[in-house]
Amino acid sequence: MYPLVKQIRNIRRTLTYYSHLLDHCLSLKSVKLTKVVHGQLIKVGFNGHTFLGNRCLELYTRCQFIDDIVKAFGDITRKNSITWNIFLKGLLNCGYSDMAHSLFLRMPERDVVSWNSMLSWYASCGHTDFVWKRFREMLCMGVKPSGYTYSIIVSLVFDALSGKELHGRMIRSGLITENVVLGNSLIDMYSKIGLADYAIGVFSSMEYLDLISWNSLIMGCSKAGYGELALSQFSSMRYLGYPPDHFTCSAVLTCCTNLRNLEKGKQIFALCIKVGFLSNSVISSAIIDLLSKCNRLEHSVQLFKELDRCDSAVYNSMISSYASHGFSESAIQLLVLMLREGIRPTEFTLSSVLASICGIQADQGTQIHSLAIKSGFGMDFIICSSLVHMYATLGLIDCARRIFASIALPDLVCWNIMITGLTLNGRLVEAIDTFKELHRRGPLPDQISLTGVLRACSYGGFVDEGIAIFSIMEEYYGVKPCYDNYACLVDLLCQDGRLDDAMEITEMMPYEPSSMIWELLLHACGVHGDVRLVEKVAQRLMELEPQLSLPYIVLGRIYEMRGQWEDIIRVRKAMKRNVVKNFGGCSWIVIKNHVYSFTAEQLQQHAGKDIYSVLRLLTLEKGEITPLETNLAEIDAMESCLW
C-alpha cells in the first residue's frame, strides 16, 4: 500500500508543478514557454489531463492560435463544461464564428457561460436581432441569466418597453441589489432612451455607488436634455466627497456647452486646471467646444495655441469651431497643419471641413474629397453625407447624385440634403421623384423633407402635387405644417389662380404672415387684375414694409390699366413721400483665390480702375466689330461709377 500512496503523492506534486508552470506562462503571456510546457506534458502523458489540458487550452485561446487550440482540445480525454466553453471562446476569438455556432449547437451541456460567449460575440458584431433571439432561447431553455448576461442585453435596449421588461427580470432575479455594474448599466440605458426620471430612480435605489454611477447619471441627464439637473447632480457629487475624474468634467463641460452656460463652464475650466486635467485631450477639446459655442472663438484659439500637445480630438474641436463660425479658410489651414504634424485626420475632421466649404471653393472641396478617399474614408457614411451636401451647395448636383446613389442605406438627413439640393439647383422634377423614392423605401419624411418637396412644387408650378402633399402631411406623416409650408401652399394657390383661397389660407394660418407671403399675393393679384384684392394686399404690405416700393408699383400699374389717373397721382405722391429704399443684388467670381463682387453698375474691389483699363484695351482690339466710340463711352461711364 505504501508504494501506491507514494505514487499518488508524486502524481500530485507533478500536477501541482505543471499547474504552477502554466500559471507562470499565463502571467508572462509567453507563447514560446507555453509550448515548451505543453511539450513536456505530452512527454509525461499529462496532456490529456482535464485540468492541465484546460489550462493549456486557455493559454492558446488568449494567444489566438487556432491550430494549437484545436489540438489541445482534442488531446483532453475527459472534457467537462469548462473545456467546451474555453474551446467555444477560442473559436470566437479567432474569428471562426460558423464553426463556433456549430460547436455551440452540439455541446453536451450549454450553461450560462456558453450562452454569454455567443451573446457577447453577436453583440460585438452588431447583430442585435440575433442577441435578442438567443437571449429568448436561453430563457426558454431554463438557463438563468447572470449579471454579465444582463450587462450585454442592457447595452442593446433602444425602446422603453424592452428596457422596463428587462429591468423587471433583473429585479426578480435578485442580481441588481448589490451589483453596482448592473445598476450603472440601467442608469445608462434609461438615459439613452430618454427616461431620465427612471435613471434617477435606479440611482436612488442603489445600495452602493461609485464614481461610474455618478458619471452615468450626469451623462444620462445631459443626453436626455436635462442639463440643469445634470449640473445639480454634479454639485451633489462634490458635496458628498466623490472626487471627479476627467470623464466627469468632460460630461459637465458638454452640459454647459449645450446650455450655453459660459459662467458655469468657466468654473469647471478652473477646476480642471486645479486638478491637472487640462493636459487630457478630451477635456481640452470640450473646453474649446464650450468657448466656441458661447461665441468666444478668440478664447478657443488662444487656448489651442497654448496647449503643449494636440491630438486629433483637439484638432477636430478647433476645426469644427472655425467651421461653425464661417472661417472655412482657417479650418482648411488647420487641416494642412494637422497633416504636416503627422496626425491622421478622422472622418469627423474631414466632415467638419467639408461642411465649412461655401459655394466659392469648388477646388478645395474636390481636394478634400480626394484626401478622404486616400485616407480610406471614401465610403464612410458621414463623409458621403457631407460630400452630398457640399457638392449640392457648390451647384455640382450630378456629383452629389452619384455619391448619394453609392450610399447603401442613406438616413433621413441624407435624403433631406438630396431633396433640398435638387430643389435649389433647379432640378425640380428630380427633387419630387427623390421624395417619392424616400416615401417608397426610406424612413418616414420629416419637416425638412416636406418643406423641400413643397418648395420644388412651388418653384416648378406643380400645383396638384404640392396641394396633395400639403393636405396629407399632418394626417399621414404626422408633421404639423410650418410657416414655410404655408408660404408654399399660398404660392401654389396663387399660381392656380385661386386668389380667394390663397387669401383665406393667409388669414387663417396659425402664424403671422410676413411680407414674403403678402408679396406673393400682391404679384398674383396684379397679374389677374383684381383691383379689390390688390388694394387690400398692398395696404397690408405697406403696413409691414412702409419703405418697400413693390406695393406702390403694382398699384400704379393696375390703376394705369384701368385709367384711374387720380389714383395714380395719389400713389406716386405717397411713394415720393415715403423714403423707398431699393436694395440691389450682388454677384461674385473667384479669380486666383481672390473674390471679386459686383453690384449694379459698380465693381467692388481694390483694382477696379486697372480692370477697366484692361477692358478699354480689349474693346480697342475689337473695334472692328462694335462701334469704338460707344464702347469707350460706356466704359468711361462705368468707371466713373466706381469712384
UniProtKB/TrEMBL annotation:
Matching PROSITE patterns: PPR
Protein name as annotated: Pentatricopeptide repeat-containing protein
One GO term (biological process): RNA modification
Domain of life (superkingdom): Eukaryota
GO MF annotation terms: RNA binding
The PPR repeat ranges on this chain: 80-110, 111-145, 210-244, 311-345, 411-445
Taxonomic placement: Eukaryota, Viridiplantae, Streptophyta, Embryophyta, Tracheophyta
InterPro entries on file: E_motif, PPR_At4g14850-like_plant, PPR_rpt, TPR-like_helical_dom_sf
Keyword set, alphabetical order: Repeat
One Pfam family linked to the record: PPR
